Amino acid sequence: MIANYHTHTWRCMHATGTEREYVENAIQGGLQILGFSDHTPMPYPNGYVSPLKMRLDQLEDYVTTVHSLKKEYENDIQILLGLEVEYYPAYFHNLLTITRAYPFDYFLLAQHFLGNEINDVNSALPTQSEVALKRYCMQCLEALETGCFTYLAHPDLFYFVGDDAVYEHHMRMLCQGAKELNIPLEINFLGIWDHRHYPNLKFWEIAGQVQNTVVFGADAHQPEKVWNPQALKTAKNIVNTFHLHLTDTVTLRSPKIS
Ligand SMILES: [Zn+2]
Ligand SMILES: [Zn+2]
Questions:
Q1: Residue 258 confidence (pLDDT)
Q2: Distance 223 CA to ligand 2 centre (A)
Q3: How far is the CA of 53 from the centre of ligand 2 (A)?
Q4: Confidence of residue 124 (pLDDT cuts 50, 70, 90)
Q5: E-assigned strand segments in 5-74
Q6: pTM higher than 0.70
Q7: Whether the predicted pLDDT of 230 surpasses 50
Q8: 219 CA to centre of ligand 2 in angstroms
Q9: Distance 209 CA to ligand 1 centre (A)
Q10: For residues 137 and 172, is the Cβ–Cβ distance under 8 A?
Q11: For 52-83, what is each residue's pLDDT tens digit?
């Protein structure tokens, strides 16, 4: 593993440490590329504040901090400026208008909520609803089709506990869509070391059949997690078990506005 594109900062309110500590840990672990991709701020309506994302008024400081580290450490590691972005149709255009003022290298897609977040389904809560599962897959695909996203983070975040055949049907469509668009899927290390419901082996079996390209993502919310040999071992097992195509580095896609 020479690159990790999935790194958070304290601004999302559920990560710890300084940006510098993440960089130092990445260098110690032998990474050549470290991408910061904190949870994006969103132009929510009516003063809504997400408890899990940075605020819009923190964006400037985020960009400035990452860029100054990029310059300071340029001889040791390549630092990239990204965001982990939810695709919310109601706010997406406004978000692009805001973020285009900054030199973002890439967006990762992560669909933690369906619809536009507020008062809608949380992808990580167990459900037997096929309607919700289908919405998750369709919303991810619609997002990927915008061309704004470098890869899909924890594609198996949606916690479906219903019929296996139903899961397979919808997730296969998501995997096929990602493959047609040539967009990698992430095996998420946070899910591994935190013993979450993902990585979901049922999902990775499908991705193996579809022959998706996969990338490892630390999803580090603590500096020492930016490099995680235990999770790496488990992730490599998943790759080998399902004959997945692993890529070390990804083609960066930065959002464009029409
Ligand atoms: Zn997070
Ligand atoms: Zn993340």
A1: 44
A2: 13
A3: 10
A4: very high
A5: 33-39
A6: yes
A7: yes
A8: 5
A9: 29
A10: no
A11: 999 999 999 999 999 999 999 999 999 999 99
Question: Looking at the CA of 53, which ligand is closest?
Answer: 1
Output the six-digit token pair for 184.
């990698």
Burial of 51 (0-12, 13-18, 19+ CB in 10 A): exposed
Query: Are the CB atoms for 213 and 247 separated by under 8 Å?
Result: yes
d(CA 4, CA 219): 8
Alpha helices for 73-129 (secondary structure H): 89-99
Contact between 25 and 73 under an 8 Å Cβ cutoff? The reply is no
Exposed / middle / buried, residue 125 (Cβ in 10 Å: 0-12, 13-18, 19+): exposed
Given 3-state DSSP classes, what are the helix, strand and coil percentages for the chain, each rounded to the nearest 5? 40, 15, 40
Answer yes or no: are the C-beta atoms of 102 and 134 closer than 8 Å: no
> How far, in Å, from the CA of 4 to the mean position of ligand 1?
15
Measure the CA–CA gap between 166 and 171, rounded to whole angstroms.
9
CA of 84 to the centre of ligand 1 (A): 9
Give the helix/strand (H/E) hosting 199. Answer: none
C-beta of residue 221 within 8 angstroms of C-beta of residue 14 = yes
Instruction: Tell me how far the alpha carbon of residue 152 lies from the centroid of ligand 1, in angstroms.
Output: 15
Per-residue pLDDT for 253 more than 70? yes
